[in-house]
Automatic annotation (TrEMBL):
Belongs to the class-I pyridoxal-phosphate-dependent aminotransferase family. Gene3D superfamilies: Aspartate Aminotransferase, domain 1 (3.90.1150.10), Type I PLP-dependent aspartate aminotransferase-like (Major domain) (3.40.640.10). GO terms for molecular function: kynurenine-oxoglutarate transaminase activity; pyridoxal phosphate binding. InterPro entries: Aminotransferase_I/II_large, Kynurenine-oxoglutarate_AT, PyrdxlP-dep_Trfase, PyrdxlP-dep_Trfase_major, PyrdxlP-dep_Trfase_small. Keywords: Aminotransferase, Pyridoxal phosphate, Transferase. It comes from the Bacteria. One of its GO terms (cellular component) is cytoplasm. This is 2-keto-4-methylthiobutyrate aminotransferase apoenzyme.
Amino acid sequence: MISYPISKLPDVGTSIFTVMSALANEHRAINLSQGFPDFNCPEPLVNLVTRYMQEGFNQYAPMAGMPQLRHKISLKTEKLYGYRPDEETEITVTSGATEALNAAITAVVKPGDEVVLLEPCYDSYAPVIRLCGGSPIYVPLVLPDFSVDWDQVKKRISSRTRMIIINTPHNPTGAVMGKQDMDRLANLLSGSDILVLSDEVYEHMVFDGKQHYSVLQHPQLRERSFVVSSFGKTYHTTGWKVGYTIAPPALTKELRRVHQFITFCTPTPFQLAIADFMDEAAHYLELPSFYQAKRDFFVEQLKQTRFEVVPSAGTYFQLAKYSDITVAYDLDFAKQLTIETGVAAIPVSAFYHNKTDNKYLRFCFAKSEETLKAAAEKLAKV
């Protein structure tokens, strides 16, 4: 008999996104759980990928990313955030934002280190920290607006704290951090060697006239931060898995040491096509209004239901509170909705390490109006 090794993540099962999408497929439910659009990416972008494939750009890209794409990222960053990162030493193209997060954590977190997480939080952070021998230290966001209690963060920082991970706009809650938050964070970390990992993949989805405030705009934070972005979110191409990081040269050097042994590089034709398409700035500049229209439509449709909704400030997710409907545990209610009502959502307890249940479900509104209307009509019967 083979003696198999003990699992390094014995308490980690299949991702809630996979579970709920599979359940939606099984019961032919409208899938508002996993965060992907049900509409296609811009046709010119597809044509560019096809062209580069046909022209023979199908071999390995440079490990750090195609120079053309890193150059365009540098120019875009300066245009949006007033800081131009060095395309050779500060920008790395990755196979999706999840890989970038993994590489950044793995590059700097060692056994015994602590990493502060603000929860609910994206489910990939803690497992990677644990695989590195580190310990996640959880600080809950403050309901009902899911704001950060920086005094509580301060209390959880210790001599072992290596990193704090922030996410703005925030998945799953849609909350958005502002300059005041960044100032508080900078003051908190002043004089320390604590690093920041800033997950900003929804940077172009901030609503109601507000602007995304990036760590890159804050000099004191920029010098200690990895910033992660996602072309999959920006160009409706989640299946292409193209993202990138921006970090100071010393941090980028460490990230690349890891990145080269995870994926080495990201598909060449995708990189070249995105580099060309980035000249069409109107696409990402119009994303806030594009997604706000979807948010507003979905929120209006939900008024016919018994769910309690406060419009999301960012991302393409909308939380809905269901405490007036049932006292059921959110995972059980999410499964019930999928099977009996025909609409799949994500239970927010899945984003807490201790499965805290505040009676919220997360719905993705990156869908056509037809899909959102059909989902709301089903939810109105609950």
